[in-house]
Amino acid sequence: MSNSTQTPDEVLYRETVWPSLIASLPIALIAPAVALVVTPFTDFVLATLAGSFAFVICLIALLALSPKIRVSKTEGRIHLHVNSATIDSKHIGAIELIEKQQVRNERGPSLDARSFRVFQPSVPQMLKLQVIDEADATPYWLVSTRDPKNLKAALTK
């Protein structure tokens, strides 16, 4: 039994970047597509069940793979967690809000291949966080978020 006293993380910001409803609509086409493919081999009821099952599996996968962002404070240090990646705030330099007009350029022509990026294509805003760690080859993090101002505020506390 350990006597170490671990202080729990204080969560300053938490967000799951869900896809928009319109971006999720193509998944609705999975059910009829699977049902049409299966219909020649079975009856209508089983084909409908197969299509519904495929739809549910794809919807669960879409939601489970949505980016998860968390800013936590442990022992006076602030950490940004994006999915399974973590960076200490002392390694974050300038934080830039990328608005709707600039998003396409940041995801395309201006994108550095060495950057860490987590996109949700249906979200029109992102944060660009410069990495100032000398030992890290990653020049910046590019993260989709629905609430860039509050995320930036949590990182600069």
Textual characterization of the structure:
The chain is an alpha+beta fold. The protein has 5 helices and 8 strands. α2 packs antiparallel against α3. The strands form 2 sheets. A 4-stranded antiparallel β-sheet has the order 1-2-3-4, covered by helices on one side. A 4-stranded mixed β-sheet has the order 5-7-8-6. A hairpin with an 8-residue loop joins β7 (126-131) and β8.
Layout of helices and strands:
Elements: E1 10-16, H1 21-28, H2 30-38, H3 44-64, E2 68-74, E3 77-82, E4 85-88, E5 92-98, H4 100-107, E6 116-118, E7 126-131, E8 140-144, H5 148-155
Helix pairs in contact: 2-3
Tags for this model:
elongated; 157 residues; alpha+beta; four-stranded antiparallel beta sheet
Strand residue content: 25-35%
The description of the largest β-sheet is:
4 strands, antiparallel
What is the N-to-C order of secondary-structure elements (H for helix, E for strand)?
A: EHHHEEEEHEEEH
Strand numbers in spatial order across the main sheet: 1-2-3-4
Give a summary of the structure in a few sentences.
The protein is about 35% helix and about 30% strand. The protein is built from 5 helices and 8 strands, in the order βαααββββαβββα.
